Structures are given as C-alpha cells and as structure tokens.
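writing this on my phone so excuse typos. first protein, seq and then structure
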Amino acid sequence: MQPGELAMASKARPGDRVAVLSPSFAAPAVAPQLHEQAIRRLAAVTGLVPVEFPTTRELGASAEARAADINAAFADPSIRAVIATIGGDDQVTVIPHVDPDVVAADPKPFVGYSDNTHLHNFLWQLGVQSFYGGSTQVHLGPGPRVDEVHAASLRAALLDGGRLELHDPGESEDFGVEWTDERALHEFGSREATKPWTWSGPSSKVEGRSWGGCLEVIDQIAMAGRMPSVERLEGSVLLIETSEEIPTAVQVGRWMRSLGERGFLGAASGVLVARPPVSERGKVPGARQRDQLRGEQREAVLEQMARYNPSAVVCVGVPFGHTRPQWIVPHGGLICLDGADRVISVEYS
C-alpha cells in the first residue's frame, strides 16, 4: 500500500462516544481532579461523550492490559474516536499485543503525541490515518481554558474535517503548573512570546502525506524493527519533534543523520519541525540561553537536511510537539508547505 492510499477514518458526530485511553503512562491516576476537568472540557469542546477503559487510571498496568483496552476501543462500534491521556516511555512493549485485524476493521480517528508515536506508526503501517498531538492531561485539563488553536484542530481532527492554515499562536510554555498543585486547574504555566518560524529549502510548494513524531520514539521504533519502508515514504512530509527530556543538539543531529543514512530524509518532499521545549520545572535557563538552545537544535536539523535533501521544503518552530499551545496535525494526512509564501495548510478530512 502506498502513502496516498491511506484510509481516513469516519468522523465522529456530537453525541458519539470517544474512548479516553492510557496506552503508555496513566497520568489520570496522579492527578484525578485535573483529569476530570479534562474530561468535562473534552465533552464541551467536541460534544462527544468520553468513555474510560479499565487501565485509563491504572498505574503500572501491564502492556497486555493496555493493549486490551486499545483492542476493545476499536472493536466497540459505539466508540467513534480515541484519544490518549498522555504519552510515556514504554509503548514499544504494548504494540505487539494490539490486534491489527481489529483496528483495521473499524478505523477511528486517533489523537495522541509523544510515546503515542508508536501507535501512530502502527496505524500508518495498516494504512490508517491518525492525528499527531493532543492529550487530556496536558492540553485539555490544565489552565483556565483550552487553547484556541488546540480546540480548533481537535474539532477538525475528530468532527469537522476540512483544511486549516497553521499560524503561530504567539506564545508558548515548555511546562505547566505541577499537576498536584491546585493552581494547575486554573493557571497556565509561564509563557513567553514566540519568534517567527524558520524556513529552509527552495521557494516552492510541496504536498505530501505525513509520517513521523517524537525523535526519541522513532529511535525505539527503528531499534524494534518497525519502521516503514523508504519507498512508502517517497514524497512524504516528515514530522519531527523532541520531548521534555530535552535532548541536546548533538543527539538531535545524530538522529537526523541516521534517518538520512536510512534514506528517510531523502525520500521526503518536506519536513515540519516542532518548537522544542528547552526548560523544565526547576531548571529554566535565561531567555538568551533558551533562544540559543532552540537555535542549536534548529541548526542540527537544517545541517542534516542540507546534507541529505537540500531540495526539501523545511519549516522549523511549528507548535505541534511538547510545548503548549499545540496544534494537532494529520499523521498520514496531507500537509502542504509553501516555501514561497511561507504558508502551511493541513487537511483533516
């Protein structure tokens, strides 16, 4: 199956049920009040009816049990969409227990990011599109409200479809208030003004079906032998982002170089690179150093793209990764990068 043949799951409708799963870390068990606020907001923003499964709030659930919840959600005809509560670090152990026949029999919009790159790749290999970004615990529950760009792209992913033009929300936070702090229910984290996205490559327009996710997870996918073929990625738009573990520019460069040696960078028509987090709770560099760290990661990516595919259109700084506000973007759906007008438009239908 070629990327152009990926199937789009049917959209949900207000009143339908949406599965809320913890395929990696069961964050709701740590901060149940925040989770419950997220569930209320998910219903309010989408009109869907959230449904939890046995391991949604179960810390330490086995890989088999978490996979059973994924299988059950896709097998249940009354469930019309699936969203992850958060990422984690061991979903690589869950994927072998997910039933491809069950998932492929009734494709549903899936929303998640970070460690959920594993499940996105699993769906992509089955020929099913999904949506990269989104979590109940980080993007719906905390703060005084749901960010506008997040709400708009969540509705587009699950309900409305259509085409959206991505824009910079103008502010960003690397992390929010500690979940167990009551202020997390009504305060954002420390936000700063953003700077314009960086464009590289030719001044041309490219469009392709997206594949990718969190670099740290792509590394695990490769080690587990679950990468797609280079041939299936010809003409694609790669999605690249890094996690709150804040890898160095050297590490990012090595991952990109490995993707280049494998042929993935050369196969892409375009690359979308997320704004990286560069600070964490208890360790916030000064503003100048934060800019420097982001710049170093940016240059590490651009250096490898210039080496392996200078004809690709690249945009760096788009908030679809581990920062907030966050756009949800298609994984396996069409993304258009216009290097001349510097416009990104994405297809949710």
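second protein below, same order as before
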Amino acid sequence: MCIAFSGQRALACAPLAGNPTVSQFSKTMPARPLRIVVLEFMFAEDVAALDMTPVGVVDPEYYDGWIGYDSARFEGVPTVGTRQEPSLEAIASTRPDLIIGVGYRHAPIFVALDRIAPTVLFQFSPDVQSGKADGARTQLEWTRSIFHTIACMTGREEQARIADAKLDAGLARDAARLKEAGLTGTRFALLQDLGLPDRYWAYTGNSTAAGVARALGVHLWPEKPTREGTVYVTSADFLKRPDVAVLFVTTSNAATSVDATLDSPIWRFVPAKKAQRVTLVEPNIWGFGGPMSALKLGDMITEKLLALPKH
C-alpha cells in the first residue's frame, strides 16, 4: 500500500493487505521485481512512467491509439494475448517475476496466473456506490494511488515522485492559463465517440477527467458520479444546456469537420453547436490511464477551452 499527499508529495510504502485499490494478490511477493507482465493499458503506462519496460504486454497494437505514452518503449516487447483473454502460455514464456492485472477481468484466472508468478490484481476504479472509495473522490486520485502502489512494489518511489511533480506542475500551469483567460468555472462535457449513432460516453463527476477538471478550476458535466465514471448521452441531452461546451474525442481523425463527425440532425439545434463551442479531440485521449494520461488530458482540456469562443 502507498499513502500519498498532494502538493509536496511523499510516498510511504506499506503491505498490500488493506490497500483499497488491490483486489487480490499472491501470498509471496518479490522484493524488487524486474520482469513484469502487464495485462491492462493503465499498468503499461504506469510501468513506463516509472522508467521500466515490461517483458510482456497485451493488445500492443491498440496501446498507441488509446494511450500513446512512451509507445516506443514497447516496440519488440512480447505480446501475451489480449486484455480480455491473456495467454497463460505466452505469459509463462516471458519468465515474469510479477504479473499485474485488473480484478474485474482477471479474477477468474488469478489462480492460474499465481502459479506462473506472483500476481497483483487492482480494482480499476473506486466503488463510489458502496461508499468504500477510501477518500478517492475521483478516478484521478484512485489511479494515482495505483501508480504509487506499483512504485512501492518495484522500489521506484523516486521515479514516482518525479512523475507526481510533473503532473502537479502541469495541472497548476494549465489552471493558471485558464484563470488568466477568465475561464475559471467554465462548464464542459467530455464525450467519447463509440462508433454508435448519436450515442456517446460522457465522463462523469467521479472520472479521471472530473479530477483533472477540478484541478484546473473548471467543471465537468454531468456531475453525478457513476459506477464506471461514464454515462451514455445523446445530442438531445445538450438541447437545454447552453452553458456546457462539448469536447468530443473522435475514433477517427480530429482533423475532420465537426459537422461531418456529429451527423445527427439534432446537433444543429444544440446551443453549444450553434455557438461553435463544440470541438473535436484527437483519438488517443483516454480517460482510463495513469498520471501521464492525466497530464495529457489536462493539457488538452486547457488548449481546447482556450480556443473556443467565450460563452
């Protein structure tokens, strides 16, 4: 377990037992594992941010499109299956001394993974509905806690401090830019294109995006927390929300026009669309990453809000 404090951030490492972010872990853990297999994109990013290269990754062909942080590091790293279906044989072939996975996907194969190497499964996000979020108001705090735990497990506390300082400084810089432009308090929605007709994910009040927005001094809509930090919305949900700008993460190319991307006829009646306060965002802005994804998200939100016409 790792306890962290914002601002001048200090890491205090403790046993995994009692760590709310950990759902399962092996009885015996290595002191300083070097050969790590990661079974989720967030953990690949976390390990890279700690200046470590895993010996096995899942879905590497999609990592660059969804996350993209330090992608060159993963070139040539063996593939060990997909996030949904890791290959036990491929994992074993890498001779790992630590496997990192996520509970909701990999709990059914935990025993098999544990036979290969010591394994830790993380709970992907805080359980806001049960009230057992251990003080994490948003997924940003939760994912930072996961990052710190991995740093403690690998003896990389100093690298974690460097990453923390970079993220904190970046968010503070972005907040200052928005304040100087008179945009503190701006309300916006961050939508994720799903390839469905006029149906999108909106990141909600307990998402990483909401935590980043809070650090920037702006407000993410919708505010109500949800189990996964997202909720389905359509263009009609914005008809009576003239104060909400829309940042739309595309699955294709942010260089295409807004009109060509948002092809539902309802969008032309949306106040934000009429006011040209809807903008497209490059595809690899992912709301479920680690600290470097949060920094990228903060920079993107800032740049997009600064470029929009003022409300």
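Residues 157-180 form the longest helix (24 residues). thats all i got for now
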